[in-house]
Specification:
It is a single chain. The chain has 2 helices and 5 strands, in the order ββαβαββ.
Length: 126
Amino acid sequence: MFDIFIKTHFAGAHHLRDYPGDCELPHGHNWKITVTVRARELDEIGMGIDFKVLKKHVNEVVDRIDHRDLNAMEEFSTINPSSEHIAMFLFDNLEQSLKTDRYFLYSVTVKETDTSGLTYYGTNLG
């Protein structure tokens, strides 16, 4: 098995509804994202997935949330745009395009700061 990953980032604003503290107020982050694909085997030229292919799919989804007020997006109209929900959004929107007989989307890591973040593995690990 091979875990192949890329790192990227996006900037966005949000606020957490019903949060008992400052995060209930509008504020922003420069979120750091790591997307990991797990390859069961390599292709004929020795790759699990081409980094260029992985970056293309990830950038298409990240571009939808970059420099946005996440609370104003339909996807977050009934749920808080927490890092957990952002990771789920990214995972759910990448899962089908990053699934073949050789590899699948393994995890999405979302960091609000260099020292705070989480990793989401989806509901099915392969």
